[in-house]
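Check the record.
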Amino acid sequence: MTQPSSLSSASLSNDPYASHVLARLLDFFHDTTPWPRRLWEVSSVLALEEAAECGDWTRMRVLSSGAASWYMHELERQLGPDRGLGHTKLRKELTGLLRSKLLSDSRERRRLIELLPSIKQGYLSRWADSVDSANPPSPERLARALATYLLDCGHSTGRLHGWARKLSMNADATLVDLLAGACQLAEQRDQTFEVIVPFMSVPDHESLASHLPEWLSPRQTAAWFAEQNVADPPRHNGAFVYQFTVKDAVAAARAAGALVRRLDARRSYARRAKKQLTAVGRVWIAGQPGSLPLSPPDRGVSVLSLVSEKTMYSVDRNDRLDEALELAAPLNTGSVSTAAAGAWAAIESLLYHPGDQMDVEEGRAVVADRLAAIVACSWPRAELTALSYRHKPSVPDDVSRRLVACNSNMERSRVIADALVEHIPLRLTTPHEKAASKRMEAVLVDPYRQLGDVSTIIRGVFRRLYRQRNIVVHGGNTAAVALESALRTAAPLIGAGLDRLVHAQLINGVSPLVLAARAENSLALVGDPLGPHPTCLLE
């Protein structure tokens, strides 16, 4: 691509660099994006906040010193290419602080905490400035930096997707508009929203809720709707009204949903609780038009093999994989604490072997490494298969004819891989698909390095989940700084891993630990003449 004199002035609709950035933002912010195209990372700023928090948990022996040291070392790698961290002096300072281990009462930890506000100030502006530098970031890296920071600031995916979607519909919008909008969102202060959550049923509300300042009787609830000019208020039997200080209205609605989930859990402790706490299912926000869903979107966990192999309703009570699926069930819609605890219990039960002396010596974090290898090996075929169904030329070509003759997704993915290697252009219609094909081209050119990088990223995701799980289970804390982000990034990837484990056992009778060994071998040998092709790393 020939870059314009000012890359940031590139058109979002016509320039390949700019359209790639926008397409990836739309992928990252959409709640139903398939796992291969989701956002797998957290921002460097949140990662540094997590590092500062580690000191307290190591002092309380919730996290081991080894786990904290491993994280500090990995964080150095993440910070290396981060344009938002400015110049060399800050990077050198951060490297020194991380290598100090950031013990709870150390001067280094205090210094890091003092640095964080200045790192946040102008973080995305520095990324924006780098776009027109002599060495601009790749569009993929830029999109990831923007998305991770905005999400970790507290903006909801719903609000951010709406912003990116509006830009995509503006034919005159440029990359500078996108960057300016992202910087404006990054600097936006929290707002206070008044959210009303109406209920169809609140058992014993006369004695248990009427004295609470947040409770509105049916009459008061009707008056609230009238005052807000709600044209068609729902049927209800009272409501709770809450104040949330967050970035946007969607975030406020989702915070209300999380709070109602906690209310429902408390209600379960009532003796002989025959009547259920039943919410209307929508929330209304003062000063905002319309209503929003009470329940947040699920976390994107899919085990498609249960459907494709028609085993969804076939339960084996003595099967460890079935037990693992039950443990992981809270991942999609459960509270953050049950989701983190259940998910880790599920994968640990499958991928840790107490009889393996190396497992005992390395600790249970080895589970994260094994699952990361399995998911990384699943990624190329998932993306290439998706591209095979998007290649639709107006006149059938050699690639489409070969695809028609395929009998499996593995064959379809190999056809697309061969086309990319041979530089045969695919007939792809959206920037999302074109961005995916670019990622796959890079994998096919250097599979060992690319898949190694992906495995490293995913390993970090799963190890973060393990740390957060330990904070929940051993520290009794559900408000750790990285817990929500850990679930956002890990949940879809765990779903992908469980899907591969289910498929391997159902189709080939391959156990989870054997599949993990196969994946580790494939990552070590891919790209070698004797190694596997990127489309069949788990075969």
Q: What stands out?
A: Residues 300-539 form one domain. The two ends are 37 Å apart (CA to CA). The first helix runs from residue 16 to 29. The longest strand covers residues 191-201.
